[in-house]
Write a structure and sequence with these properties.
Elements (H helix, E strand, L loop, with lengths): L2 H8 L15 H6 L2 E2 L7 E2 L4 H10 L5 H13 L1 H26 L6 H15 L2 E5 L4 E5 L7 H14 L7 E3 L8 E3 L12 H21 L1
Antiparallel strand pairs: 1-2, 3-4, 5-6
Helix pairs in contact: 3-4, 4-5, 5-6, 5-7, 6-7
């Protein structure tokens, strides 16, 4: 095991590694790495380039070997890693504004659409077609690029923006929650990012409200 791999495993777990992946699309899960976009932020899951790598691994985009390669490279080129981290946060906020507008039946801004298109074009420039058993898929040219996780996120967002699933993008109805998700429920009536999180909190509040009315 390399020195960096040892330091990686020795460090305490990052919140990025336990982030709830509830959205049904990579780009929306990435947008959800901040809890509370429009208000004073409630919880940030990405606080460094290391968090960005660990989140990507948690989301199934990297294996351990790739994560260790990127973390080693970030140690050698910290300024470049920091630039990528700031680009990632900017992309995340662009994606949130775009899909938040869609979920609330508003028109996304041309500025945000242009930013996503630029990220998509950048991603495609680093890709090539490869043959699979039954068809073809995109693969990435440089598996050691510090910003490679942004390519797949940008493509995911562009694919969602141009698919029928866009009409199913929702925003959680929780009082403080602004997480986004694709509503694949049978009747497309899903209200919560997660029943175990915001759904249960809403049920508890309703129960307390009914109990208060009965005792008033």
């Amino acid at each position: 095991m390399t020195r960096v791999a040892k330091s990686h495993t020795a460090q305490t777990h990052s919140d990025a590694e336990i982030h709830h992946l509830i959205a049904g699309e990579l780009c929306l899960d990435f947008a959800n790495t901040l809890y509370g976009h429009d208000k004073t932020p409630i919880h940030e899951y990405l606080n460094s380039y290391r968090d960005l790598v660990l989140w990507s691994q948690h989301a199934g985009r990297f294996d351990q070997r790739t994560a260790d390669v990127l973390l080693r490279k970030a140690e050698r080129f910290p300024n470049e890693a920091l630039v990528v981290f700031h680009r990632a946060i900017a992309l995340r906020e662009t994606l949130f504004r775009l899909f938040d507008a869609v979920a609330n039946h508003k028109s996304p801004s041309n500025t945000d659409l242009a930013a996503l298109d630029a990220a998509r074009i950048e991603a495609i420039s680093h890709s090539h077609l490869v043959r699979t058993a039954k068809s073809f898929t995109l693969d990435w040219n440089d598996q050691t690029a510090l910003d490679q996780m942004l390519w797949e996120i940008a493509v995911s967002a562009a694919d969602l923006m141009t698919s029928d699933r866009l009409a199913l993008v929702r925003e959680c109805s929780g009082d403080l929650c602004d997480w986004l998700f694709v509503d694949t429920s049978r009747n497309h009536m899903r209200r919560w990012c997660s029943m175990s999180m915001c759904g249960n909190r809403a049920k508890v509040r309703r129960f307390a409200h009914r109990k208060l009315k009965r005792t008033a």
